[in-house]
């Protein structure tokens, strides 16, 4: 994403909309036997989020209710956290370890659903060692959990590498969602309920007739959207002039329409904006 600076008497929100839109956003649950972290991101960034109510460790989840209170766990090495765990006890404790792990996974699954997935509505990618995927999937009741996650120790790699792996996992869903949006635009256009003519898009935005607005992320059209939907061209050097595409997005959002910000190459037209009309 290229850097962009604009000075105008209105807020420029298109890049922020792209960052916040749900079409290419996802959450990642980084999980081990004794640790859980939640991340949120898109194709460009992945950041850890602190979610009240979601335990970060087995101790937070189970407290003093461990099956074997005498069992201790030591974690070693790893960039950004643990890469392995060594168990110290009196032997024959595998069953107790498995019971506590299952209980921990249940608490994590329930709290992540309640405090992350349900409020955000975003898909959830599990990042964990291969042996933890099936046990977690078997106990999970989270409908947002993607079937195929990232099979690696998430605490042993840099966050950016985790982002790359997560996006690779999420990308097929993203492609499907974009295909659905583009297909909806094509069908609406065939039924004369869509347009990429900027003058028509401006009028429809002013009248509250746009259900979905597709906007090119890196395209800038200098101008201003008047109250009646008329588009006046201008120069970005003028502080009263902004990006028309940004103004259109703000107007459509104000009337309850959906805005989808796409890379230029994925737009269905070269106009910079395309609208699916309500009527």
Provide the fold topology.
Layout: H1 14-20, E1 26-31, E2 36-41, E3 46-49, H2 58-62, E4 72-75, E5 85-88, H3 94-120, E6 124-128, H4 130-139, E7 150-151, H5 159-190, E8 194-195, H6 198-206, E9 210-216, E10 222-225, E11 231-233, E12 242-243, H7 244-254, E13 258-262, E14 273-277
Parallel strand pairs: 1-6, 6-7, 9-13
Antiparallel strand pairs: 1-2, 2-3, 4-5, 8-14, 9-14, 10-11, 10-12
Please identify the structural class as seen in this structure: alpha+beta
Weakly predicted, low-confidence segments? 69-91
Total domain count: 2
Strand order across the largest sheet:
3-2-1-6-7
In CATH, the topology of the largest domain is named: Nucleotidyltransferase, domain 5
Give the biggest beta sheet.
Answer: 5 strands, mixed
CATH architecture of the largest domain: 2-Layer Sandwich
Portion of residues within helices: 25-40%
Number of helices: 7
Radius of gyration: 24 Å
> How far is the N terminus from the C terminus?
34 Å
Q: Looking at the structure, what is the overall shape?
A: elongated
What's the level 1 CATH class of the largest domain? Answer: Alpha Beta
How much strand? 15-25%
**DSSP E strands, number:** 14
Strand/helix succession: HEEEHEEHEHEHEHEEEEHEE
Q: Taking all residues together, what is the mean pLDDT? A: 85
